[in-house]
Design brief:
Helix 6 packs parallel to helix 9, helix 7 packs antiparallel against helix 9 and helix 9 runs antiparallel to helix 10. This protein is mainly α.
């Protein structure tokens, strides 16, 4: 098990460092350790609402497949994995993400309450994204299976999606997981190297999202349906534009993150849009 560097400090060292900010505040601003400005409430609010909505749709889907259609497909099993891996709210609840780094003292910024949840969130996020996008592609295989070009496109998308997110997952684990004899704090320094990958990751995710959005629109546009009904079906699939918008925002916030030293404040918007 990785060591905790902070636990090895003497009480005198902890007391002294408790008055030292993790980042020097801007001119004219004093560190506020007692009651710092905190944007984690917005994260908790957004994620709680979305998680609640997702749970409602999940229960409705499982009930329909289990008791009405009485048939499960691959995407139904994957949805279970998504629900289990999509909750990383602990990162804010236990660590000071969403707080200016000059309002966090050194022991807190190096605390396992911050470092471990962040590590777990980085791993679980890639797992959730992999399976979430795979669900849509499996659904396309189920709905548009008779279309040969769609089968080829969906399987190609599954191959690219799986390869991309597995590569990101492995890279994050290699760079972020403490090695034998290494503390979590030392591993966190190596984890900073993953920031350079944040924009390429976000761009790759955006390309996959656009691919997933465009496929059903093309398929539906070629079906022999009344124009009004065809438009209605296309609008349903156009809800995927929200994922594309989130990916664009992730690129923007990733750019901000890699160009700032205040990682605890700048990192929260990425958690929200992801």
């Amino acid at each position: 098990m990785a060591a905790d560097l902070v636990s090895s400090w003497t009480p005198e060292e902890l007391d002294a460092l408790s008055n030292v900010p993790a980042l020097a505040p801007p001119p004219g601003i004093e560190s506020n350790f007692a009651d710092p400005q905190n944007q984690s409430l917005s994260f908790l609010l957004v994620t709680s609402i979305l998680f609640g909505v997702m749970t409602i749709f999940f229960v409705n889907r499982i009930y329909t497949k289990a008791f009405i259609i009485r048939k499960y497909t691959w995407d139904d099993y994957i949805v279970h994995i998504i629900l289990g891996s999509s909750n990383d709210i602990t990162c804010v609840q236990r660590g000071k993400v969403g707080v200016y780094e000059w309002d966090i003292n050194i022991p807190d910024v190096l605390s396992l309450n911050l470092l471990v949840p962040q590590y777990l969130a980085s791993i679980l996020t890639e797992v959730a994204l992999l399976f979430t996008k795979a669900t849509f592609l499996f659904m396309y295989l189920s709905i548009f299976g008779p279309l040969r070009w769609m089968r080829i496109s969906a399987w190609l998308g599954l191959l690219v999606n799986t390869g991309f997110y597995l590569a990101v997952l492995v890279a994050n684990m290699i760079l972020s997981t403490p090695r034998p004899g290494q503390s979590w704090q030392q591993a966190a320094v190596s984890e900073l190297e993953t920031l350079a990958l944040s924009i390429p990751q976000a761009v790759g995710g955006l390309i996959i999202d656009i691919f997933i959005l465009v496929l059903p629109i093309i398929a539906v546009s070629k079906l022999q349906l009344p124009p009004q009904r065809k438009l209605g079906v296309i609008l349903i699939f156009m809800s995927g534009a929200l994922a594309v918008a989130a990916s664009i925002l992730k690129i923007y916030y990733s750019y901000i993150l890699i160009n700032t030293t205040d990682l605890t404040w700048a990192g929260l918007p990425i958690n929200i849009v992801t």
